Amino acid sequence: MKRILNNCVLILLTVLIGACAASKKLDKTISTALNPETFGNHFSGIMIYDPISGDTVYQDNSEKYFTPASNTKIFTLYTSLLLLAKDIPVIKYCNVNDTLFLEGTGNPSLLHPFLKDSSVIRFLKGYKNISINLNNFTDTRFGPGWAWEDYDGYYAAERSGLPIFGNVVTIYKTDSLQVIPGYFRSNVSLLKNTRNRKIDSNSFYYDPAIKDTLEIPFKTDSLVIQGLLEAAIGREISLVSKMPCKEKKILSGINTDSINKRMMQESDNFLAEQLLLTASSTLSDTLNTQIAIEYMLKTHLKELKQSPRWVDGSGLSRYNLFSPESMVYVLNAMYKEIPKERLFNLFAQGGESGTIANWYPGNPQPYIYAKTGSLGNNHNISGYLITKSEKTLIFSFMNNHFKNSVSEIKKQMQSVFEWLRDNY
Questions:
Q1: Local structure of 151: helix, strand or coil
Q2: pTM exceeds 0.90 for this model
C-alpha cells in the first residue's frame, strides 16, 4: 500500500514538474517575443485562457484598458446573439383603417449592396396607403468620438433608424455610369475632387479616370429616406410624427447570422452600428445605441472585473476602452453558450477569410478564428486558437501606440500563436 502511495506521489510530482516546466517555457517564449527591443516600445496586453480547465495560461497587462478599435465588434456580436431573433426584425407596423403605419428597427439589410434584403419592399407593395414614423431614432448620425473627416468614407456611413442601401451611394462604370440608388444619379458630378462628397449636401464626385467602385455615404434625413422608399415601391408615402398604435407587429427579414458574419469577417462598421440599434428596438420603442449598451452592462456583463467604456458598436471611436480580460470574458461566454460550429463560422479564419485571410495560416486547417481591430498606431486581435492537441484556447492580444509597421506587430504575434498551436 505504501509503495502504491509513493508511486502515486511520484507520478503527481512528475506531472507537476512537467507542467511547471511547460509553463516556464511558455512564459519565456512569449516574454522573448514581446521584448521591447524586438517587438517595439509600445503598450501591449495579452491574455490566454483555457476554457475547459478554467486556467489562465498566460497574462500580461490583461487588466489594463486599451483602445480596442474593431475588437469592440465582439461585444456587439454578443449583444446581437443574445437579443436578436434568428431572423432580424426589419420594421414594426400596425394597420389603422385603410393605412399601414410603420417605423424602422435599425435593421441594416434593406436593399443593402451585399445583403440585398427586399422583404420590406415586397411587404409595402401590398398596401396603397402608407405612413412612416422616423422619429423613434434618437441617436446621433455619427458615433461619439468619430473623426469628422471620415464623413465621405464608406466605413463611416451614417447611423439611422430605417437605413436603406446601406446608407451609401454605389458608383461604378461599365459602358456607362452606374449609380445605385438611381435616386442620386443627378447628384453625381464626373470630376476629380479631393473629397467624394460635399460635407453639407448629397453632392457626389466620381473621377471618370478611375476603375474602382466607390461606396460613398449619403446624408440621411426624413425627406431622403421618404424619397428612397417611394422610388423603391413606386408610390407615395406620408411622414407622421408618431405611431398611432401601442400594439405593433414585427416583420422579420433575413437570417441575423448572415449580418453577424459579414460584420465580423469584413469588419463592417455600418452593420455593427445598426445591429446595436436593432438590439435596442427589442428593449424599447426608442432606437438608441446606449439603450442596448446599458442593458448589456447591467445584465449579461455585470460580472466584468474591468467595466469598459463602450460608446459605439463598431469601434470607430477612440473613446472606447476595453481590457484583454474583458474580451476573453465575452469570448468565453459565447464559447459556452453558442454551438462551436456556428460561433467559429462567424469569425474570420486565419489564412482563409476576412481580415486575416493573409495572416495566421493553418497547416493545413485554420487554427485561428478571430476578430482584428485597427486604428492608427493600434492593432488588436482576439478570438479562438486551436492547438495541434485539439485544445481550444481563448485569447486577446492588444497593442496600442506603436510607431513601427502593423506587419511587424503581426509577425511577432504570429510567432506566439504558432508556438501555442504547436506546443500547448
A1: coil
A2: yes
Rounded CA separation 157/175 (Å): 28
Half-sphere exposure of 291 (CA within 13 A, CB side): 21
pLDDT tens track for 19-40:
455 567 777 777 776 776 667 7
Per-residue b or e along 241-269, where b marks 16 or more CB atoms closer than 10 Å to that residue's CB: eebeeeeeeebebbebbbbbbbbbbebbb
Q: Where are the alpha helices (DSSP H) in 267-302?
A: 269-281, 289-298
Compute the distance between CA of residue 424 and CA of residue 391 in angstroms, rounded to an integer.
8
27-75+287-423: CATH class: alpha beta
The full DSSP string for 343-383 is: HHHHSEETTTSGGGTTSS--SSS--EEEEEEEETTEEEEEE
pLDDT tier at 15, thresholds 50, 70, 90 = very low
Pairing of strands 168-173, 249-255: unpaired
Which grid coordinates are listed for 60?
Answer: 500580461
Q: Sketch the domain layout of the chain as residue ranges.
A: 27-75+287-423, 89-255
Q: Residues, the chain, total?
A: 424
Three cell numbers, residue 288:
438608441
Query: Pick the residue with more confidence: 364 or 373?
Result: 373
